[in-house]
Amino acid sequence: MAIETIAPPAEDQAPPRTLSDRMRLLGTGDGVITLVLVAFVLVASLAVEGFATARNTGFLLLDVVVIVLIALPLTMVIITGEIDLSVASTVGLTGAVMGQLWIAGLPLELIVPLCLLLGAVLGAVNGLLVTRLGLPSLAVTIGTLALYRGLAFVVLGDQAVADFPRAWTSWAISTIGDTGIPVAVVPLAVLVLVFGVVLHATPIGRSLYAIGNSEDAARFSGIDVARTKFWLFVVTGVIAALGGIYWTLRYGSARADNATGLELQVVAAILLGGVSIFGGRGGMVGVLAGALLLGAVRNALRLASVPADVLNIVTGVLLIAAVVAPQVTAWVRRRAAARSRSA
Amino acid sequence: MSTAVTRPPAASEETSGRGTGGASLVQRLFAVREFGILAALLLLVVVTVVVQPRFLSQQNIRDLLLSASILTVLAAGQTMVIITRNVDLSVGSTLGLSAYATGTLLATQPGTPVLLALLVGMAVGAVAGLVNGVIVAVAKVPSLVVTLGTLYVFRGLDALWASTSGRLQINAADLPTGFKSLGTARLLGIPVLFLVAVLVVLVVGYYLRSYRSGREMYGIGSDPEAARLSGIPVGRRVLTAFVVNGALAGLAGVLYAARFQTLDATAGSGYELTVVAAAVVGGVAIFGGSGSVVGAALGALLLTTIGTALPQLGIDPFWRNAAVGALIIAAIALDRVLALRLAGRLRRRSSRGH
């Protein structure tokens, strides 16, 4: 909401020439957040007992898998200036359908593609409402957040389905040898590469930034804005469904309230990663760092036996800080510019 | 975020000279909208009564009004925020925090007068609203993100307080009788809680309709930049909307405590969606700039009635949330269609020349 009619001034995109330019580049999202992540991991390794162990790394990464996964398409959605708050409900609904189909006796080899198809349909509903009817994605996806979560309860009620085959559920939490790194990280890394390359090295990616910076300009340069956005929502639905399948297997239980509130963590990770909520700016490296930082902070706090309630306080504060910080730095820069002009 | 793709032109710019045409059209639209909700409400009640004649028993109506009153108070505050083209997703957490604060106060100081408890609850809410408003107005960041953050911060503080104070749950036995009777008291057979909600709707509605600063909120929501250029103190008005909304969420927390009398840190979880739904279903445009508190109150009544009617109709109550979601989408789609039609009609009118 709070539609800013006047977009914040775009950063000067010239290549860095001087040291101060390089410093400024660090000050835009990616650089800073990566530094913060490295610093935090170093401090936590020294200060928190049991943080820098293979076992804990495994736990940390397991928690981050679904967040990174959903952040991939959602980053693109936010770069185009839209948002999808229904992703966590899609995780819940696909999990619930998965459980109900399993009760009905379908094999998982068939259930998985059906659930992915369902995700595509759920995403297409969002996409159609946004692009066809021209409704604001914020309002639409608040609506589908409630609708899909409600349907998850309609499908599964308050029961839990937990008798999935051991082979599948143990794969979801198995690790590569004794490194502690979950096996699931391998396909995830492939997806991260694919999305990263599409966003940063293809015309499609460039068109997403163009749409986010100015929809009219993008339209005049021949980009089919509506179609691009529609398919983005579909892809987001499919990936969220994939997240739902993985979530169900990882916890070994399909429940209608699975992943409630996860959308906050995904959005927080993306904004922490330096993606502008106004669209048009941000990148995949930063998002990856943002998700890892959020996961590391929560993990370290848990190890330091900070109560779970505080974890949410920290997540909320980080989210707010992520949107406020760029505004503050922009203000400071404006002040400095004004002072140098008047001098 | 997500700028409305093509916003319909404001009626006032289109009808120069004969300003009444556009205004009456707009008025008619709203009349139709509120009439539409009433019709839906009546239809729902009639159908339910046919299936289950006991639905309109005195006790049932009283329960319905009681349930609707908390949602109505929240929806009234949310309307003010949405009109300024913002949103407050933290109201459920604010309600929880205020309910727990009020409960703690009354459990530890049983002699506290009800009115003082009410004011304390409202003050807790107002502070929460102030936090939201300052961040939104001063840092100029989208309220959606800020209040999504404070949703978790306030809820976390609530849970932290409950777990560290050694009072995880406050039960009816811990609360003084005087306060508990507020939840069941009636005036001429009407629940007092509902009368409080009606009073809130009347006051907020009157402010938005008849006070200059209230009108300016509509101006801010229609076009923030134009509002700024015309000298409206945008930041201060947005801050006001958030503080009032916070105070009302605080009041809702007190009413919640009086009605349910069993409080823990989860009170009000997930309310925010229903509140936004009530406002949007009631014709408050999610892009800001239009809507009425009465509409939002009718929206709250409709949603509450759906919740109580479903089980009576033999429909699984799990459908309620799905219905809330579907109603949000239907309402914004309807607004969009009406706005497009209105814009088209105004264009035709101005192209004919008068």
Primary descriptors:
heterodimer, A: mainly alpha, two-stranded antiparallel sheet, B: 354 residues, mainly alpha, disordered N terminus
What does this structure look like?
The complex is a heterodimer of chains A (343) and B (354). Chain A is mainly α. Chain A contains 14 helices and 2 strands, in the order H-H-H-H-H-H-E-H-H-H-H-H-E-H-H-H. A two-stranded antiparallel ribbon of chain A has the order 1-2. The longest helix of chain A has 35 residues, at 308-342. The model of chain A is unreliable at 1-16 and 22-27 (pLDDT under 50). With 354 residues, chain B is mainly α. Helices cover 75% and strands 1% of the residues of chain B. Chain B is built from 14 helices and 2 strands. In chain B, helix 3 packs across helix 12 (271-281), helix 3 crosses helix 13 and helix 7 packs across helix 11. The longest helix of chain B is centred in the last third of the chain and has 34 residues, at 319-352. Chain B is globular. The relative contact order of chain B is 0.19. The interface between A and B is large, with 56 and 57 residues.
How big is the Rg of chain B? Answer: 21 Å
**What is the terminal-to-terminal distance of chain B?**
38 Å
| Strand-residue proportion of chain B | under 5%
Q: Portion of residues in helices of chain A?
A: over 70%
Low-confidence stretches of chain B are 1-20
The oligomerization state is: heterodimer
SSE string of chain A, helices as H and strands as E? HHHHHHEHHHHHEHHH
Which class of secondary structure composition applies to the elements of chain B? mainly alpha
Number of helices of chain B: 14
Order of helices and strands of chain B: HHHHHHHEEHHHHHHH
Q: Low-confidence runs of chain A (pLDDT<50, min 5 residues)?
A: 1-16, 22-27
| Secondary structure category of chain A | mainly alpha
